[in-house]
Structure formats: C-alpha cells, structure tokens
Fold:
Amino acid sequence: MSRIVELREELKRKADKDRARVLQRFFKTGKGEYGEGDVFLGITVPEARKIAIKYKDLDFSSIRKLLHSKIHEERLIALLILVDNFKNGSNLEKKEIFDFYLSNTKDINNWDLVDLSADKIVGEYLLSVLGSQLSEIGKSVNPLASQILLKLANSKNIWERRIAVMATYQFIKNNMFNETLKLSEILLQDKHDLIQKAVGWMLREVGKRDLKTEEEFLEKHYKKMPRTMLRYAIERFPEKLHRAYLKSRV
Structure:
C-alpha cells in the first residue's frame, strides 16, 4: 500500500460526520458561497497536524494529489506537510517548496488553508531566503519580494490576494510594516469580506507593535475603508478611540 493510500485510509478512520456537517456550514460550502463544493471529513486541525508529521516524507507528486483533492482535510494536510518541510529544509528545499506553493494557489482555496501556510512559506521565504535590506527610511524587503507580493495582491483570485496579505504577517513579526501598508492601500476597496478581514487583521497586528504607524495609516484611509476592515483594524483600540472611529463613519 502506498503512503498516500495509507494516509487516506487513516483519514477515513478518523472522520467525524457530525463535526463535518458543522464545518460544511462554517466554511460556507453551499452553492454560490466562497467554499462551494468543499467537502469535509470532520478532522480537527491538531489531529491533522499529527497526521502531517507522520506523512511528511511524501514527495511533491503525492502532495500535489492531496492538494487537488476535493476533501478539505487532504488539502490541509498537504499544506501542513509543506510548512513543516519548509521549516526544516535547506535554502534550496525552501525554494522548491515556495515555487510549488505558488504554482498551486488555485488549490489553496479556503481562508484557513491560506492562514495556516502563507506567512510560514511565502512570507518566510521572501523575508529570510531572498533576504532583507535596510533602506534609508527603515526596514524594507528585497525588491523582488515586493514584486511577488504586488502580483499576488493584484490577482483576480481571492485566495492569491489573501495569500499576499497574510504573507506579510512574517514581516510584521519582524517589525517590518511597509509591505503590509502598501498592500492595504491596494486592497482598500476590495469587495470581498475575506480580504477586508485579512487586511484589517494585519493592520491590527501592526498596531500591536507600533500603534502610531497604524493610526497614521487609518488617519489617511479610514473614511473610505470598508466598515468590516475598519472594525478588524481597531478591535484592540482603547474603548474611547474605538468608538470615535466608528462614530465618525455613521
């Protein structure tokens, strides 16, 4: 029995129909919704992580088969394998995983799949492997990294746009905010709430480390920012300031 067959058999044994029904609703899998057609087995993320570690020796061909699956947890495990292998790989192996990831974005097609992998693969590769440089005005990423993020942010594919935003979380954790602010401006009027939430979330993460930088951005843009994006961005603000921003939008 091949390793991928073993993995799929294990997933079937661990499936939970009751949890699967809940997840089908939670991840908007109905007709016309963002997760239309996604199929869940009802396996928790911690359990998926254990399985990913067990099968981390799968080659790219097998991982691609998992990513092409209509079963959500198979795609999730494929990405968790990539994340783990990226973390422990050489720079050459990291480049291979990064390239593989970006060539399969059409299958990284739900918000949890993006959020569990984008900063750990795309963000980390652009920051650490391509390298960073110091500009005259502070920290900024390698120009090639910036180009890659801009291309993703301007994609018609919602998941590529979310990948771009979430990848910058890795920069934020290293106190590098320029790329997040740049992409936030590009996506300021994005119509999809999953992009609005992601942008607002990353702005909030900027503010947790440098409130002045976030406030300067909001001062320029909050009046035209979608309300969902704004609410996420100011979620951790002091109550008085939080109310002031929302009141000004009424």
Notes: The first strand starts at residue 132 and ends at 135.
